[in-house]
Every structure is written in C-alpha cells, then in structure tokens.
Amino acid sequence: xxxxxxxxxxxxxxxxxxxxxxxxxxxxxxxxxxxxxxxxxxxxxxxxxxxxxxxxxxxxxxxxxxxxxxxxxxxxxxxxxxxxxxxxxxxxxxxxxxxxxxxxxxxxxxxxxxxxxxxxxxxxxxxxxxxxxxxxxxxxxxxxxxxxxxxxxxxxxxxxxxxxxxxxxxxxxxxxxxxxxxxxxxxxxxxxxxxxxxxxxxxxxxxxxxxxxxxxxxxxxxxxxxxxxxxxxxxxxxxxxxxxxxxxxxxxxxxxxxxxxxxxxxxxxxxxxxxxxxxxxxxxxxxxxxxxxxxxxxxxxxxxxxxxxxxxxxxxxxxxxxxxxxxxxxxxxxxxxxxxxxxxxxxxxxxxxxxxxxxxxxxxxxxxxxxxxxxxxxxxxxxxxxxxxxxxxxxxxxxxxxxxxxxxxxxxxxxxxxxxxxxxxxxxxxxxxxx
Length: 435
Ligand code: ADP
Ligand code: ASP
Ligand code: MG
Fold this sequence. Notes:
The chain is of the alpha/beta class and 435 residues long. The protein has helices spanning 11-20, 39-51, 55-76, 80-99, 107-131, 155-168, 197-207, 241-249, 260-266, 319-329, 354-361, 389-395, 423-434, and strands at 2-3, 29-33, 136-138, 174-178, 181-183, 189-191, 213-217, 238-240, 270-274, 283-286, 294-309, 334-339, 343-348, 366-380, 404-407, 413-419. The chain has an eight-stranded mixed beta sheet. A six-stranded antiparallel beta sheet has the order 12-13-11-14-16-15, with helices on both faces. Strands 5-6 form a two-stranded antiparallel ribbon. The structure holds adenosine-5'-diphosphate, aspartic acid (ASP) and magnesium ion. Residues 4, 195, 198 line the site of magnesium ion.
C-alpha cells in the first residue's frame, strides 16, 4: 500500500492512514509512504538556495518547515511520551538539514536533503502506530532499494534485501518504508525521481509477490483525461498493464512514468484508490485486455522535436542507425519517431545534451529543433484490425496543427505531437469526441 503526499499531509490524514493500513487478522501489509505534501518541494527550494550560496534563504524555509512539523506532532499524538520522542527525532532531522548550510553543496548533498521528507513522514506514522499499540516496524528503504550504473532499479538486489528484511521481522502486522529514496550503484543516497514513491511500491510489491499493489492518492482512480485541464473527466475502472504503462509514461501524473513495469513483469495487479473516499472502486490494472474501447488520454510536456532532413537518405541504408547511435552515445532516449524518404523527425524530453546531439546530427543532414512541444497520447485497444479507431482520434483534431503522428508502435496507443499552446484544446477536443 502506497500513500502519496496529500494522503499523509495532515495529522488527521495520518490517523486515517493508520486505520487503512491495519490488516485483518492473519494478514500483513507492506506500506510505502511519501513525504508530507509540499515537503519535497520545500526541500528542492532549500537546495536551490544552497546551490546559490544563500544560507539565509535556506534557513528561512527550514525554520518554516520545522514549525509546521512541530504543530503536526502536537495534533497527531495523544501522549507526552510519543510527542517528546517524535519532537526529538524531528529536531535532529532539522539540525541535520541546517548542517548543509555550512558546507559545499553539490548534487550529492542535494539528494541527501531531498531524502529527509520521506524519512520524517515514515518515522511520524510509525511512532503513531506504536503509540496506538499496533504491531509495526520501520524498514529503511536505503537498505532495500538500489539502482544500478544505468540508474535503473537493481531488481535482484531489491528482491533479495526486501525478502531478507521480512525474514528478520516475521511476526509484524505492518511494515513501513520510505518511497522515492534509494541508494545508487556507488552506495550514495539517491532517489527514483519525482513521484518515485509509486515506483518503490511497485518494486516492493513485485519483489515480495504481494497479492496486490495499492496506490492510494487524492482522486478516485485513473481518469480518462487530465482532470487538472479537462472538465468532467471520469474514472476508468479497469486498465490492461500495457495501457496503464503507456498512460503513466506519457504523462498521467497519478502514476510515476515507469512504475507499472515491475508489477507487469511480476503479474501483480495494481489498484488505484482514493484516501479521501476509501470505499470508492478506483481503478484496477491487471492482465485483462478489454477489446474494442478507447480508455484514456494523457499528455507529456517539455518535449523537443528534432528533424533531420537528408537528401542522402534516399536508398541509404544505415542512415537511421547513425542517427539513433548519436542519441545512444548521449544516453538520451527517444519517444516518438516518424520517417519519410528524405528525413526523420523524433522527440526527446531530456535536453541535457541537445547542443552536442545537434552538432553531431549536422554531419548527416539539415537539422531543425522545435521546443515546448507536447505528446498527447490516446490509449486503448488500438490494434490495426479495429478499423476506424485511429481516425476517430485524428478527426477530433481537425482544427489543430499536428506536428507528428505515431500509430502502430504498440497495439495500445496513438500519439500526436502538438505545440504546448494547443495542449489544452487538444485534450478537450479528444475528450469531447472520444468519451
Ligand atoms: P500523490 O501525491 O498521491 O502521489 P499525485 O499528485 O502524484 O498524488 O497524483 C494524483 C494527481 O494526479 C491527481 O490529484 C490529479 O490531479 C493528477 N492526474 C493527472 N492526470 C490524471 C489522470 N488521468 N487520472 C487521475 N489523476 C490524474
Ligand atoms: N516525495 C516525492 C515527490 O514529491 C516522491 C513522491 O511523492 O512520490 O516527488
Ligand atoms: Mg505521485
């Protein structure tokens, strides 16, 4: 069971979570918690001040955050003993954060700072469970979750360490750990990127072969479009693993972009549930493919489109390989690709090496770069034998300038690339015509 930031954001929410995670007789729950809502953003802000060598700015935020947490403790616990214990723990955590205002600040220190949110929230909830007399143990994610040299989760390590922890603590009702944080291949504190607690939950659920992985958040499951942008979106009750993976990867914020993969490989169903309305049905993600329906739309921002035009592509085998090798060399993954006889257009979201990539590409043709693009992805049963499905999606966009279309890469998706100025109109038009 994973609870996101808003689900643990107030003392009342933490108390509700404590009820939700108390298992029935004879069962055990493994619980992954995010930092309290807003905390990771504050820690990012603290880091920004420290990068800019402004310790006063960082201290102001640290003090604000400390006051908020102290108030939270007073409301959460009912006994002096647990109030004092938790105040003491938090005092040490905030003093630790203050030590970073007096030293060199690099990306290494930043990751340690970002880890403190989950370390604090898991301590607070565990202490509350213990105060309530529940059987609970806090396991450090830093001992279980590790990434490899490619910054990908090291699944064998995770499985081995997590199962060993369960073996060490066999008779416990509730295991708690931090989402998001991990160690990297060099043993340093690192993280699974923003929203990474979903990923932690799916990695652990897959590792221990849990009955189900539950992602508890602040909305009733996966909606058929982005509810922050489109009105009257509706929950989708069931998704096939591949459909959910495409939606997550292409921008549905309710799930971390790559978290479905481990669950899919392990065959463990993922259920999205609402902490604010625990009895609502939510969404189940499993191995069942419902044929004949379009399920949902999502959008991924911050996309850069690169076009390479070469008259030499004409019958030139090896052109695409040379182009793709450049992206591989700069460890930059490509999302969409469209080719024609004279060129290729593709999209990336990581522009860290854009200048070098463009320099190299210029050896093979004329290069054009367009930034601030958005991939809009329509997900459902989009196998080619379903005649007319892709046309329905495309027709909805009849007055929108579409830069690229990708269909046929998988049986579950058709993607459109549009400029960010057209994102809202594109999402609204698709909802209107598809749902
Ligand atoms: P948590 O902190 O629990 O991880 P997130 O903010 O990461 O929660 O994800 C939940 C939010 O995702 C929702 O409140 C909603 O605004 C947003 N969201 C974006 N797209 C979708 C979608 N297709 N379905 C449901 N929620 C979505
Ligand atoms: N706290 C982290 C974040 O805000 C991880 C998560 O919430 O999933 O990104
Ligand atoms: Mg999230």
